[in-house]
Design goal:
Layout: H1 2-7, H2 9-27, H3 31-53, H4 76-106, H5 111-120
Helix pairs in contact: 2-3, 3-4
Length: 121
Amino acid sequence: MIELLASRYAYALMFVLMGVGMYMMIANQNLVKKLIGVNLFQTAIFLFFVAVAYVEGGSAPIVPTEGDPGAMASPLPHVIVLTAIVVGIALTAVGLALIVRIHSEYGTLREDTLREVRADE
């Protein structure tokens, strides 16, 4: 078991980040901490895509003019991760803007307090 974890440490780290992110999204009442949990979960997914795309002894996907090309790494997962990073940054920016607006309107960031305030309206 230890040998498997030593050889696949990226997957172990991915599961840890995913678990911490999911816990932060579920267990915390603070909206900023929930957003940080979403970002940790996204980072775990990015790590998963990069770990899956790794090819042992692979080369860049540029076809040589001579000789055997050998094993090549697919650029598609890396492109997807780059796109997802941009989307994640935009999601974080919109989330933070909404959090600032919620705080200015209600004066709190706790989810349970917000529910009580909204129920009174």
